[in-house]
């Protein structure tokens, strides 16, 4: 998979949009104050990365995680 695809993103100011971010590329998130930049970076993209990382861990190892 060469891109991160998120569909129907809805979080705080972000209202139901699709997002396709290429992997191994520099991306920039810009916008006016209150437009959802931090929400997109931390509450959407970062959390999706955490979710995918945890899914990749073998179930026998997961029981040792907090």
Plain-language structure description:
The termini are far apart. This protein has one domain (3-62). It has helices spanning 37-56, 59-62; strands at residues 3-11, 14-22. The chain contains 2 helices and 2 strands; from the N terminus they run ββαα. With 66 residues, the protein is α+β, with helices and mostly antiparallel strands. It is globular.
Short description:
It is found in: Cytoplasm. The chain is α+β, with helices and mostly antiparallel strands and 66 residues long. It is 36% helix and 27% strand.
Task: Name the features.
single chain; 66 residues; alpha+beta
Query: Would you identify the regions where 5 or more consecutive residues have pLDDT less than 50?
Result: none
The tally of helices reads: 2
**Form type:** globular
The count of DSSP E runs of length 2 or more, i.e. the number of strands, is 2
Keywords: ATP-binding, Cytoplasm, DNA damage, DNA excision, DNA repair, DNA-binding, Excision nuclease, Nucleotide-binding, Repeat
GO biological process, one term: DNA repair
InterPro entries: P-loop_NTPase (IPR027417)
Protein name: UvrABC system protein A
Q: What is this structure's SSE topology?
A:
Layout: E1 3-11, E2 14-22, H1 37-56, H2 59-62
Antiparallel strand pairs: 1-2
